[in-house]
């Protein structure tokens, strides 16, 4: 039982990390109806900015306070992501208002390749590390209940708390604020939103800024765990089944979908892998997403689309 719970907790923590990336997909789609294929590149770009600023700030300022240096690096990377959001809105999205979804999708693919290239030009292509002070040593919990206890990763626990706080804040933002309601109105119908005075360009800028901050948090955590390298963009591919499962328009769905995918991957790999030769963790999420597409295309929490004829 102890081993099962340890695997279960490991899956839950991995799922929370997937959810951080999936949040970026949901935010962009919720506000613009665009499936943002550049989200993985945004995570990498933000992580590169964070890693390099955390190196440069102590060198060029002489600052030796670890906490302050990392805080300044985070704020600097956040400003960089705001600048990226402004450039995306000004140079790309502003000229594609009311275009077909396919056109917008191709635009995000172009943005993805651009961010990959410019990130390498500005920040370099080496493998960098991010150290934000999160403890990496495991802890042993529930020793009184199970023999040997259950080993938990402190870093994953911190990541889970951060993801939960982000989800709560974003849910309140979309549901309780005027800007959040405007974002949902824009997602439903661009032309109708414009006709009632909602500034489409400003709304898109805001949502790309928010998605940039989410990408920064995700990149910071994934970079702390895996190192900042260009393979980090593939993390977005692991988040695709999450948004399909949870629903493209649901912020809580991104979290629930991530938890299901994370737990499913770990349990299937540990308990079914020995019988089929392993490798289940690689394809499990995509098979599960395919099954949901066949029976519930909108996902668990997605909104049903009803076309009246």
Quick recap:
With 309 residues, this protein is mainly α. Helix content is 72%, strand content 3%.
Q: How would you portray this structure in words?
A:
Strands 1-2 form a two-stranded antiparallel sheet. It has one domain. It starts with a helix and ends in a 14-residue tail after the last helix. A hairpin with an 8-residue loop joins strand 1 and strand 2. The chain is globular and about 65 Å long. The chain is mostly helical and 309 residues long.
Gap between N and C termini? 55 Å
Q: Provide the helix percentage.
A: over 70%
Q: What's the overall geometry?
A: globular
Sheet of most strands: 2 strands, antiparallel
Q: What Rg is obtained from the alpha carbons, in whole angstroms?
A: 20 Å
H/I helix tally: 11
Approximate strand percentage: under 5%
Strand line-up in the sheet with most strands = 1-2
Helix/strand order, N-terminal first: HHHHEEHHHHHHH
Q: pLDDT average, as an integer?
A: 82
List low-pLDDT spans.
none
Helices and strands: which structural class?
A: mainly alpha
By DSSP, the count of extended strands is 2
How many structural domains does the protein architecture include?
1
How do the helices and strands line up, and which of them pair or pack?
Layout: H1 2-32, H2 39-61, H3 66-91, H4 101-123, E1 138-141, E2 150-153, H5 154-176, H6 178-188, H7 190-195, H8 200-226, H9 235-246, H10 251-276, H11 280-295
């Amino acid at each position: 039982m102890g081993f099962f719970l340890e695997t279960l907790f490991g899956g839950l923590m991995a799922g929370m990390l997937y959810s951080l990336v999936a949040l970026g997909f949901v935010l962009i789609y919720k506000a613009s109806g665009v499936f943002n294929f550049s989200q993985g590149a945004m995570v990498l770009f933000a992580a590169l900015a964070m890693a390099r600023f955390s190196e440069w700030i102590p060198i060029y300022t002489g600052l030796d306070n670890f906490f302050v240096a990392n805080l300044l690096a985070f704020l600097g990377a956040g400003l960089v992501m705001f600048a990226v959001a402004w450039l995306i809105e000004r140079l790309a999205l502003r000229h594609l208002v009311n275009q077909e979804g396919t056109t917008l999708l191709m635009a995000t693919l172009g943005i993805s390749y651009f961010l990959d290239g410019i990130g390498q030009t500005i920040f370099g292509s080496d493998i960098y590390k991010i150290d934000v002070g999160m403890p990496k040593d495991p802890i042993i919990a529930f020793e009184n209940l199970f023999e040997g206890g259950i080993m938990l990763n402190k870093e994953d626990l911190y990541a889970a708390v951060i993801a939960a706080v982000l989800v709560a804040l974003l849910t309140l933002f979309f549901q309780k604020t005027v800007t959040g309601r405007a974002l949902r109105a824009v997602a439903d119908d661009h032309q109708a939103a414009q006709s009632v005075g909602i500034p489409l360009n400003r709304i898109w800028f805001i949502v790309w800024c928010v998605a940039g901050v989410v990408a920064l948090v995700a990149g910071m955590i994934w970079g702390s765990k895996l190192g900042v390298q260009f393979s980090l963009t593939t993390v977005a591919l692991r988040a695709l089944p999450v948004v399909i499962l949870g629903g493209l328009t649901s912020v809580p769905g991104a979290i629930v979908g991530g938890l299901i995918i994370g737990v499913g991957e770990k349990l299937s790999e540990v308990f079914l892998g020995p019988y089929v030769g392993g490798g289940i963790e690689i394809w499990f999420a995509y098979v599960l997403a395919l099954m949901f597409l066949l029976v519930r295309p909108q996902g668990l929490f997605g909104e049903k689309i009803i076309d009246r004829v």
